[in-house]
Amino acid sequence: MVKRVVSIEAGVWWTKVALADYRKKNPPVHKAFAFRTPEHAVEDGYIRDKEAFASALKVELSKRDIHEKEVVFTLSSSKVVTREVMIPFVKDNKIMGIIESQIRDYFPMDVSNYTISYSKMDVEEEDGKKMLKLLLVAIPDNLLNNYVTFSELAGLKVETFDYIGNGTVQLLCDSFLENAVVVQLEEQATVISILENKKLVFQRVTPYGYGATITAVIDHPVLGIDDEEKALDFLLDHNVIYNRPTVPEMGNQEEMKRQQALAEEAYEDLAESLRYHLRIANTAVEYYQNQVKQEFVGNVYLVGDGSRFAGMHKLFAQELPLPLQEIDFTKVIDLRSGKNKAAEGTVTLDAASSGTRPKAATAVGFLSVIGAAVHPIDAKPKDMLVADSKKNDLHTAYVIFVGAVLVSVLLILGSSVRQLVAYTQHRNLTKRINDLSYVQETYDDYARVQAEEQVYEKLDLATVTKNEQLYPLIEQLENALPNDVKVESIQTDADLVSINLKTDKEIAVGQMLLNFADVTLLQDLSIPSMSEEKDDESGVSTWTYTLNGYYTQADIGEDGHLIEEAVPTSEDTDTDTNNAEGEEQTNE
């Protein structure tokens, strides 16, 4: 049994590493650090430059005297697809059988090239029956194989895999008794998790991380920052959400005014980028409350390096209608290093080493990699599962052989030994067949119900029009649009949809289209007109926008909600093929 593992999360700009005890509650963390990921080495979770990354990782591990070889990787990629499902309450050894028999109903795509894993969420009652709520995770095989190849180059051995939405939540579920909304602001993703009574009841993973804000800092020349590391430090030190910028005094007053205007524009863009995390959290909480049809009562906890940005805690405390609380890390992890304990929960980086982040990284940014060492989802590539199966078969065969020899010595009858072994195998196979008989019964019932419903489905399909998507469209507009953008009217002729919008502040066309990114029922969006109306008496201006779009091809489920298909894509690369759309994780 592995005692310690090296837990790694490979980001586009920074890689987090923790040396922790494996699968222990309140896990002892012996070492934790972060270092700069080699340039262009990682893209959307895939390791593109394995040689450069493996060389850098070996140097960092050697520098910190880490010799453990077993590794757990935390995956953060838009290609990882998640789905919440309900199955009958059964024993753990029967869960995977039910998932495999219904997998095509859970994921409307070809899953032959995916590895499916799950984590338990809650036990609920549905129509008087006890049901088990699961969070299914579908990971492309080529993504898993990509990390296996990389670990071999780095001299490591893959123990298992986790994904960005699991580790932190599992760690906090072991610690918090109160209801909680956990907002996890990571480099490439924002994860909203809702916990009730130490159980995960809802999760949404959005592939929008604080990396977008770091890029925005560099994209504004007036700030004078051209490096991601400096951009991170800038966001840690400057409250761009609530403060206004100041520019140095200049002899040329016109140039000074121009620079001031550019700086204010930059601050506003950065503030809007950070506020988008708040909108994601608000939308997720409202969606969950609509699902359960009651108001959620609990605290909000900000985690991830993005939560450390200046002004973020104030933003969430003022704008989210739930109390914001700090995390007591002594209840979550055990910082074994004396150096770490002295820092009162701070995992200190070696600032003198080349390529490390200059600011000390607190434990709030390391929860995902530490949690992966405690409760990983145990996703393993098919080749690894086959190898483990052969290893177990070899061990079983060895045990059977030794047992056979002992029985043969005792009975001195080889034929009796063979008969006993054959009988045991036959009994095990018969028991296995009987244990799986419920799957056939469930499948037969499912097929019978489907056959009965075909008549009604054909009749329903004959009456379908695109305007049946109008109510789901209105629901998506309510969830996706900011509060200050009002829909005045909607006109549709079954194909073209015209939406008239009104707001009390001017919004760029690009930003207005970005607000419709989560409105998946419309495509080919355009804004043919926008106008400003100014009240002569009050001097208040309002802006009116007309947005045109066309219905997308979609289905409406029995509950009136949109059922979208995730269409996987592929590239003919070696083992680094991108696959599947990660926004299937939980419908925005």
From TrEMBL:
<dbReference type="Pfam" id="PF11104">
    <property type="entry name" value="PilM_2"/>
</dbReference>
<feature type="compositionally biased region" description="Acidic residues">
    <location>
        <begin position="571"/>
        <end position="588"/>
    </location>
</feature>
<keyword id="KW-1133">Transmembrane helix</keyword>
<dbReference type="InterPro" id="IPR005883">
    <property type="entry name" value="PilM"/>
</dbReference>
<feature type="transmembrane region" description="Helical">
    <location>
        <begin position="397"/>
        <end position="417"/>
    </location>
</feature>
<dbReference type="InterPro" id="IPR007813">
    <property type="entry name" value="PilN"/>
</dbReference>
<keyword id="KW-0472">Membrane</keyword>
<dbReference type="Pfam" id="PF05137">
    <property type="entry name" value="PilN"/>
</dbReference>
<dbReference type="InterPro" id="IPR043129">
    <property type="entry name" value="ATPase_NBD"/>
</dbReference>
<dbReference type="InterPro" id="IPR050696">
    <property type="entry name" value="FtsA/MreB"/>
</dbReference>
<feature type="region of interest" description="Disordered">
    <location>
        <begin position="558"/>
        <end position="588"/>
    </location>
</feature>
<keyword id="KW-0812">Transmembrane</keyword>
<protein>
    <recommendedName>
        <fullName>Type IV pilus assembly protein PilM</fullName>
    </recommendedName>
</protein>
